[in-house]
Amino acid sequence: MSRKVKGLRIAVAPMMDWTDRHCRSLHRFISRHTWLYTEMVTTGALIHGDVPRHLAFTPAEAPVALQLGGSEPDDLARAAKLGEQWGYDEINLNCGCPSERVQRGAFGACLMNEPQLVADCVKAMRDVVSVPVTVKHRIGVDTVEDYAFVRDFVGTIAEAGCEVFIVHARNAILKGLSPKENREIPPLKYDYAYQLKRDFPQLEIIINGGIKTLDEVEQHLQHVDGVMLGREAYHNPYVLADVDTRFYGSTDAALTREEVEAQLIEYCASEIARGTYLGAIVRHALGLYRGVAGARGWRRILSDSRKLAKADLAIFDEAREYLRVPDEILE
């Protein structure tokens, strides 16, 4: 039987092509307590593919959750078991991705139209793992705007034993909008997530969608149990710097951007020794100095493919020379 994730949770969303182990390591340098999620991994990739490539991560990243994509209970159970064996703290089922590729696999957001199947999937996973099994979903699909739709979806899944729901507070439009447009065009309805918490006070409800500041996080926590940041945490990772002190009671001072960069350089050195391409790591850190004078020059140097190919960490020294130089001078 799954254990419930206890207490408040601030998290960084699972984001395809972004939240790989290098991205998560950077976020962990900045915040010790923020929950981190993998990119979505399909059951087929784990059952038929290279398991270490998809699941290997460093213990320093914990707590970290594995997000799975799939719709076959038996396959999801096998994948969840692998996730637990590899040390993940949570297994999360994707019921929110609207991409056509995911739809062709009959999972993601289209699963919201089959709540009993999702319940069967959750039960199959809970039967074989002891870590929590959670669900990330939207509030509706296509033109279904009625709150009752998401209420009944959550109620059905909760009966299967799921206790944690991550609510992306927008509809998923399965035809006509790209995944990017699906993150921007359907209107946010935070009140739907708030109502879910009122209707299911025994469940943990975590809200996601369009949240950019810790002040906004604070406001949402008046209504729900947790908040998941998405693109803002990726493009502006230092937004996580005050999470530990503000929400988890940490007495340790947050690392400065410079201290985070120093840890990142050490990480790069160890990864280069393993044969990792420097650019695969650095691409996740381009927003570290967002809002600091000269950040544009810093990003430009660290985006230079010719320099990155040399795997010379002196690139950071060169990039740092641009910091605190007004951008208008650089132009």
Describe, in plain words, how this protein is organized in 3D:
With 331 residues, the protein is an alpha/beta fold. It has two domains: 9-247, TIM Barrel; 257-330, Up-down Bundle (Four Helix Bundle (Hemerythrin (Met), subunit A)), CATH 1.20.120. It is built from 18 helices and eleven strands. It has helices at 21-30, 43-48, 51-55, 73-85, 100-104, 115-126, 147-159, 179-182, 190-199, 214-220, 231-235, 243-247, 257-273, 278-282, 295-302, 305-309, 314-320, 327-330; strands at 9-12, 36-37, 41-42, 64-69, 90-95, 133-137, 140-141, 164-168, 171-172, 204-208, 226-229. Strands 1, 2, 3, 4, 5, 6, 8, 10 and 11 form a nine-stranded parallel β-sheet that branches. It has a two-stranded parallel sheet with strand order 7-9. The radius of gyration is 20 Å and the shape is globular.
List the SSEs and their pairings.
Elements: E1 9-12, H1 21-30, E2 36-37, E3 41-42, H2 43-48, H3 51-55, E4 64-69, H4 73-85, E5 90-95, H5 100-104, H6 115-126, E6 133-137, E7 140-141, H7 147-159, E8 164-168, E9 171-172, H8 179-182, H9 190-199, E10 204-208, H10 214-220, E11 226-229, H11 231-235, H12 243-247, H13 257-273, H14 278-282, H15 295-302, H16 305-309, H17 314-320, H18 327-330
Parallel strand pairs: 1-11, 2-4, 3-4, 4-5, 5-6, 6-8, 7-9, 8-10, 10-11
Protein name: tRNA dihydrouridine(20/20a) synthase DusA
Keywords: Oxidoreductase
Organism: Paraburkholderia unamae
